[in-house]
Write a structure and sequence with these properties.
Belongs to the AHA1 family. This is SRPBCC domain-containing protein. The protein is 29% helix and 41% strand. It is an alpha+beta fold and 131 residues long. It has a seven-stranded antiparallel β-sheet, with helices on one face. The chain is globular. The model has no long low-confidence stretch (mean pLDDT 97).
């Protein structure tokens, strides 16, 4: 199994970053505007990227201002069963975001493309939280 790991530093409190990752407002600004999201463990968030299917991720863990964990239950076959986590660490007003997308079976072109897109996601998250 392989994982995608990305990191970014956001000049914003962890509470702002956390709320952006669990809310429709925040995720619509950084990922897709077509979504159904609830900050509730067990809820299945839905994201539509106009690719002919809906990506569904179950909220497995929410630790306020510290961690968000999703499990992909429906999407592209390479995503199903993978885990996406966001770990947040705040120090002097700067929040470190560690994104891990684990459980990939192997490195493929789709894996590489997703790694790029996760980096872009973190870039948009930074811009949104700092504005």
């Amino acid at each position: 199994m392989v994982a995608i790991e990305q990191i970014n530093y956001i000049k914003s409190p962890a509470s702002v970053v956390y709320n952006s990752l669990i809310s429709e407002e925040g995720l619509s600004k950084v990922w897709t505007q077509k979504l159904k999201v609830k900050p509730e463990v067990g809820f299945v968030n839905e994201f539509d990227f106009d690719e002919g299917y809906i990506t569904k991720v179950k909220v497995n863990e929410l630790k306020e201002d510290e961690k968000v964990v999703w499990e992909c239950v429906e999407s592209d076959p390479e995503w199903v069963g993978t885990i996406v986590s966001f770990e947040l660490y705040e120090n002097e007003g700067i929040t470190t975001v560690v994104l891990k997308h684990s459980g990939w079976n192997k490195i493929t072109d789709f894996y590489r493309w997703c790694s790029y897109n996760w980096a872009m996601f973190l870039h948009r998250l930074k811009s949104y939280c700092e504005s």
